[in-house]
């Protein structure tokens, strides 16, 4: 008769040791229910390598999330406060306390990952390799084979959970950016807006740009600056909206910003299509700003699903989100305030 051996996850064991050895930049709250990191940058560079053999703070926070730790905030901070990027982080788990019994470590288990969005992510990754030239596609396939477990959503989560500004986060991402399937990413930390792309047409090095103030940018399924007709049309429409904007409330402005994004006008002349390598009939369907659900057996779920407009003003954000139900083709609208 055999007995099942109970083991402790290596991450939890290392975390337990880290919080109990008088580690620099780490302490406990007064009641011993949350542990705190007092200087995030120095903790990442000086402490993490000793316990986890890396200095990636975003990866550390993602592991905490996997084991159901919560990052605590004492209040609903505005974007203005968030932009200050405080150097203290505090984490809580109901069973991970200063006075916990070491025998309880084996009870910590990873959360079961939700797969509800996996099909959509798979479709996105597969569809992306149809855009750009053949060298893009070849590198995307190679990178997917090297690191199948890495998905773009991990990059987004890492940034949102980190306390790094845009530039510092990209420096941390650069060494592994090419290990993901092709993606564009726009990041905002409350002060700076940055663009990152791992499909640099000039070579394997990912491209990063800090976007300038008072400049209109547009991007589609290619790199920033590619002058596709629908991109230029969208930028012109956005410029018109902003030129006519006069003391409207933020929700009203969001509604006007969304209108150009639901434009279904397609390119009529074949010679004006972007020549991405797709069949001409497919390129025609993709040539509008808003891509209606594509009737193509190779891309059965492809189409624009969500459109978002966001206005940031005075440290507060208003977000208007419109979702198209692919089965009923009905619009759902949501407004969020931060």
From TrEMBL:
GO terms for molecular function: DNA-binding transcription factor activity; sequence-specific DNA binding. Residues 7-110 form the HSF-type DNA-binding domain. It comes from the Eukaryota. The keyword DNA-binding applies. Signal peptide: none annotated. SMART domains: HSF. Keywords: DNA-binding, Nucleus, Transcription, Transcription regulation. Belongs to the HSF family. This is HSF-type DNA-binding domain-containing protein. It comes from Aphanomyces astaci (Crayfish plague agent).
